[in-house]
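Mods, move this if it's the wrong board.
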Amino acid sequence: MPAPRRHHILSVLVEDKPGVLARVSSLFARRGYNIFSLAVAPTDDERFSRITVVVDVEKAPLEQITKQLDKLINVVQIDELAPGDAVERELLLVTVSAPPETRGQVIELAGVFEGRVVGVGFDELTLVLEGAPQKLDDFAELIANYGVVAMQRTGRVALPRIERRSARLSVADEAS
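Not the wrong board. Structure tokens:
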């Protein structure tokens, strides 16, 4: 079994203008840094998009990447998110071989992972799952035994984890 990769997440808020994604991705290419995962989507403010980039911290000096990104004109904000400090999610679509004799097992396995059937053929099913990357890794490993016809993952999206403090703790902290 391969050693686990050590990933780090950059959440980059950029102006929503043509060519911004190309400039960001070309910065990685020019420096020879591999992008493990990349997801881009608009934010609640139509002027901005958020680019979530997952990089291997063993092979890319994160501080250097951040400094170079910060120099790009259309970059508004960069948040570095260590895996434990972020809420991460991905979407997985998979079409799997599911003849009548194994179809129930495939559906049951998808249910265990909170997945849903979104397409049904004579001998195939298309399933969708969302969740933490490790959950999708685990599911992909198990579903491979049934014969994967096609699989696609979106790449990670992430936001900083919300600090959970109760009002009682805050009041107690202020009193001390």
